[in-house]
Write a structure and sequence with these properties.
The complex is a heterodimer. By secondary structure, chain A is an all-beta fold. Chain A has no helices and 12 strands. Chain A has strands at residues 3-5, 10-14, 19-21, 24-26, 31-38, 44-50, 56-58, 64-68, 73-78, 87-95, 104-105, 109-114. Chain B is globular, with a radius of gyration of 13 Å. Classes of the chains: A mainly beta, B mainly beta.
Chain lengths: 115, 112
C-alpha cells in the first residue's frame, strides 16, 4: 500500500524568508510524486511533479521540490515566500506498483506567510 | 484552456433528497476521480474510473452513493437519500495514465 505523510499541519513563515513544506512517502516500485496548492474555495492546482531524472524539479510560481530516494522525501521549497503563497498544500504519490494508478494524497499543510 | 468542469458549484438540499453532481473531464483524459473534502477527513477518494470503467469505489458508501460515466464527456456522482453528514466539497479530477490529475472547482454540498 502507498502512503504520504505531511508531518506539519501548519507552517508559518515571514514574507521574504525561504519556506519548506515537508512530505515523505511510501510506495512499492518507482514513485511518481506531485505537489498541489489549494486556495480558499478553489480546487487543487497542480504545482510540480517528479517522474524521473533530476532530483530537483521546478514548478509554477517559483516553487521547487527535491526528491530524496534514500529518505523517501519530496519537500516543497521556495527561496523567498510571498503573502500570496498562503494556501493549503498537498503532496501526492502514485506508483506503477499494483497498476491501480490511484494517487494517494497527504492531509495537507496550511502555509501562512506573514507580511 | 482545458479544464475540468463541475456543476453545480453550490447545492443546498434537504435531508432525504437526491443530489446529482456532474463533471466534464478534460477531453482525451482516460482517468476520472471523485474526491470528497472535509475538515475532519481531508481528501477522501470516492470513485475511480479508467476508460469509463469503474475500477475502485471502495471509499464510497454503497447504500446511498453511486458513480457513473455514461460517456467519455460526463461523469456523475449521485447521493440518494442525502444526509447532513454528506455535507462537504466534492471534487472531480481527470488525468492520463500516471501523470498529474487536474481538478475541477468542486461542488459545495450542504444538506440541511
Amino acid at each position: 500500500a502507498q502512503s504520504v505523510a505531511q508531518p506539519e499541519d501548519q507552517v508559518n513563515v515571514a514574507e521574504g524568508n525561504p519556506l519548506t513544506v515537508k512530505c515523505t512517502y511510501s510506495v512499492s516500485g518507482n514513485p511518481y510524486l506531485f505537489w498541489y496548492v489549494q486556495y480558499p474555495n478553489r480546487g487543487l492546482q497542480f504545482l510540480l511533479k517528479y517522474i524521473t531524472g533530476d532530483n530537483l524539479v521546478k514548478g509554477s510560481y517559483g516553487f521547487e521540490a527535491e526528491f530524496n530516494k534514500s529518505q523517501t522525501s519530496f519537500h516543497l521549497k521556495k527561496p523567498s515566500a510571498l503573502v500570496s503563497d498562503s494556501a493549503l498544500y498537498f503532496c501526492a504519490v502514485r506508483s506503477e506498483g499494483g497498476g491501480s494508478y490511484i494517487p494517494t494524497f497527504g492531509r495537507g499543510t496550511s502555509l501562512i506567510v506573514h507580511p | 484552456d482545458a479544464r475540468v468542469t463541475q456543476t453545480p458549484r453550490h447545492k443546498v438540499t434537504e435531508m432525504g433528497q437526491e443530489v446529482t453532481m456532474r463533471c466534464q473531464p478534460i477531453l482525451g483524459h482516460n482517468t476520472v476521480f471523485w474526491y470528497r473534502q472535509t475538515m475532519m477527513q481531508g481528501l477522501e477518494l470516492l470513485a475511480y474510473f479508467r476508460n469509463r470503467a469503474p475500477l475502485d469505489d471502495s471509499g464510497m458508501p454503497k447504500d446511498r452513493f453511486s458513480a457513473e460515466m455514461p460517456d467519455a464527456t460526463l461523469a456523475t456522482l449521485k447521493i440518494q437519500p442525502s444526509e447532513p453528514r454528506d455535507s462537504a466539497v466534492y471534487f472531480c479530477a481527470s488525468g492520463q495514465g500516471l501523470t498529474e490529475a487536474f481538478f475541477g472547482q468542486g461542488t459545495r454540498l450542504t444538506v440541511v
